[in-house]
Amino acid sequence: MIVYPFRAVLPKRRFAAEADELAGKAKYHFAECLHNGDLKQAAKAEIYLYEITTAFGVHLGFVARTDLQEFVSKNIKPHEKTLKPKELDARELLLNRGSLVKPVLVCHLPNKDLTALLETHRDNHEPALTIRLPESNDLHKIWPIRNKSTIKQLQHLAGFVDHAYIADGHHRSKVLQQLDKKSKKIDLDVEQVCSAYFDFNSVQILDYNRMVEIDSGLRLNKFLKKLEKKFTVTPQIHAGKPNQKHQLSMFLSGQWYSLSWKPEILKKYQKLDVILDHQVFDKEVLTKILHIKNVTKDRSITYFSGEKSPLEIEQKLAVEPRKAAFFIYPVEIEQMVQLTEKDKTLPPKSTYFVPRLYNGIICDDLRKVSS
């Protein structure tokens, strides 16, 4: 990848303690935040070291600009399809504020020399910004890299990253590609994309799960009987997540179950490059049993990430007995890579990457008048 320094927009230190308020303001009132000093643009173009500490570990990467053509040519590959309503929302927000208020999250194969450079810079400098998010307790730290020789060395090492994968930001990158075709009609610089690069050692795919409301016309015991035609169903005493592929956990009407796909069900999908449990579940349970035609739009489905524990979901469903929660074993990075390398996409809502970026922590002002 060819990466470029840029003049990032960062929150003032005094505002960093109010991360939730900052996120809302930056998302909808970026220009006002920049004007009144809640956000401030760097005087010079820099590349930024970015470390996020979560409950899942320490995630180290860097933020720089990337040519939009890397996304167009799919050197940076998407792994899921975009949804038109979300494209329209992302487009409206981007045009209204004239900025990206968080980078597109990109993951790539590890490069030990690049990692060593990032670690050395981190260990020998104090961060310019430290923000702890109140809800998740994630800790975000940012170090500007100002030394020209260090920037050149980082750019050189990033050049060995032949291709990468969008982890989060599919709709933002798609909208930027659409706007680039109309660049003469808009007053925004969309030829480069603010991108946060984290290698595979610094990202993790969590489980992405489903909560489904069972139609009142289907008795719960009959629903369970239908599941038994597709799974080996085993009641469980304790709450828990599946510990291997092709196994799910379900909470229904006060009871936990372990679900394992029957061999004859998986056999139907053996011609696929990768058999993804999300794909089989959407087809065999949501479509065939519950007759849900569009799994991305149906309001009877709620999606929740692996950041929520089984006990949290159990407590939530204690007052909603007509809902079933399904925990699905997470997609593996190798599976994602295998599919995207063949220009195929994963089912919607099947990956949930950590770390999560946050609005307002590092922004890119795209308005041409500001450069």
Overview of this structure, please?
With 371 residues, the protein is an alpha+beta fold. The chain has 2 domains: 3-203 and 355-370, Conserved hypothetical protein from pyrococcus furiosus pfu- 392566-001, ParB domain (Alpha-Beta Complex); 207-351, Conserved hypothetical protein from pyrococcus furiosus pfu- 392566-001, domain 2, CATH 3.30.1760.10. Helices cover 30% and strands 28% of the residues. The strands form 5 sheets. Strands 1, 4, 5, 6, 8, 9, 10, 11 and 12 form a 9-stranded mixed β-sheet that branches. Strands 15-17-16-19-14-18 form a 6-stranded antiparallel β-sheet. Strands 2-3 form a two-stranded antiparallel sheet. A hairpin with a 2-residue loop joins β16 and β17 (255-261).
What CATH architecture label of the largest domain applies? Alpha-Beta Complex
According to CATH, what is the class of the largest domain?
A: Alpha Beta
Question: How many independent structural domains?
Answer: 2
Helix content: 25-40%
Beginning-to-end CA distance, first to last residue: 23 Å
CATH topology grouping of the largest domain: Conserved hypothetical protein from pyrococcus furiosus pfu- 392566-001, ParB domain
Q: Uncertain spans, ≥5 residues at pLDDT below 50?
A: none
What integer value in Å does the Rg equal? 22 Å
Can you say what the CATH homologous superfamily of the largest domain is? Conserved hypothetical protein from pyrococcus furiosus pfu- 392566-001, ParB domain
Number of helices in the DSSP assignment: 12
Largest sheet: 9 strands, mixed
Structural class: alpha+beta
Q: Number of DSSP strands?
A: 21
Strand content: 25-35%
Oligomeric state as shown: single chain
User: What is the typical, i.e. mean, pLDDT?
Assistant: 91
Shape: elongated
